[in-house]
Design goal:
By secondary structure, the protein is α+β, with helices and mostly antiparallel strands. It has helices at residues 20-31, 36-47, 53-62, 66-78; strands at residues 2-9, 12-19.
Length: 88
């Protein structure tokens, strides 16, 4: 499964092409205790549309720390929170 997620960031549309493997690798990296910032950065750089990679790198360089905000938005859109209840 691959899902394209478009986010408007600082007035520019960026497309992220996320697969279940990309999402799983991101979650696993965080669960293993990796730096959240590094895991988020790697996740975003793996999934950003190749034609937008250089522009996205510039955005990250001029807006330090935004990796967490952007990765969170991509993750929520890829894997939305479901309401789950246990019946007894």
């Amino acid at each position: 499964m691959k899902k394209t997620i478009v986010l408007t960031i600082a007035g520019t549309d960026f497309s992220f092409n996320v697969t279940a493997n990309d999402h799983g690798d991101y979650i696993d990296s965080v669960a293993r205790g990796s730096s959240m910032t590094a895991a988020s950065h790697n996740f975003l750089m793996r999934t950003i549309d190749s034609e937008q990679k250089e522009d996205f790198k510039k955005l990250l360089e001029t807006s330090p720390g935004t990796e967490l905000q952007i990765a969170s938005a991509v993750k929520v859109e890829f894997s939305p929170v479901l309401e789950i209840a246990v019946k007894k």
